[in-house]
Amino acid sequence: MRKRIVAGNWKMNTDVTAGTQLAAELMTLLAEKPAPDNVGVAIAVPFTHITEVARCIDQKVICLAAQNCSSESAGAYTGEVSATMLKSASVMAVLVGHSERRSYFHEDHPTLARKVDQVLANGMRPVFCFGEVLEEREGGIQNRIVEAQLMESVFHLSETDFSKLILAYEPVWAIGTGKVASPEQAQEMHKYVRDLIAGRYGAAVADGTTILYGGSCKSSNAVEIFSKPDVDGGLIGGASLDAPEFHRIIHSF
Ligand code: 13P
């Protein structure tokens, strides 16, 4: 059975003190009531928090993730953080292709492909995010958009490397808007993506790929969304900043 995962994306929230407290509180809650069997927990924290958070969590309980990395390996790239640096700071997974990076920082398909390659080359797991914007959904072209996002940034991978990916479908119109995709909309897209993977890598790889849903997911809607057969958990933004709420989402399977 493929792995289920609930991952928090803190985005640009909390300072080091508050972030470390949040991680510690989540550790306490998971000690009292561990995640269900076969459910992994991850938190994607700001770069500045990585060292302190790594110190206060047990990565057998919470996997430490970063929210971004450079597409380059090293050199004169002021302000960038390489995958090698993240690996050396105990990071295990890296978000790549979040819609906020695509839209605000103009990250295109080839750049994202290079980031995925960097993460894999450093022995970490990419959490590859993709999804359509509102106009694309309203125009009925969401499948074509998602197919292009996968084709251009991850379908170049070998089967072995692809098997290390975690995918996250995040319809942009549902992110931070309170407007959640219906469980049926999520299931439909997740199934479509799994079929695309089957076409490229075969049924066994498709069946083993964890595909998360993200976008206004909270404890009040997670149970219904996670109950869909092709939805393997969630990538949680705002609701991951509240440890008890995030812990409830972890227990929504
Ligand atoms: P919200 O849960 O705040 O809508 O954010 C989703 C998201 O972008 C997670 O990466």
What does this structure look like?
- This protein is an alpha/beta fold and 253 residues long.
- The protein has a single domain (4-250), classed as TIM Barrel, CATH 3.20.20.70.
- The chain has twelve helices and eight strands.
- It has helices at residues 16-32, 50-56, 83-88, 99-104, 109-121, 134-138, 142-153, 159-162, 183-201, 203-208, 219-226, 243-250, and strands at 4-9, 39-45, 63-66, 93-96, 125-130, 166-169, 211-214, 233-236.
- An eight-stranded parallel barrel has the order 1-2-3-4-5-6-7-8, surrounded by six helices.
- It is globular and about 45 Å long.
- The model has no long low-confidence stretch (mean pLDDT 97).
- The structure holds 1,3-dihydroxyacetonephosphate.
- 1,3-dihydroxyacetonephosphate is lined by residues 9, 98, 170, 175-176, 214-217, 235-239.
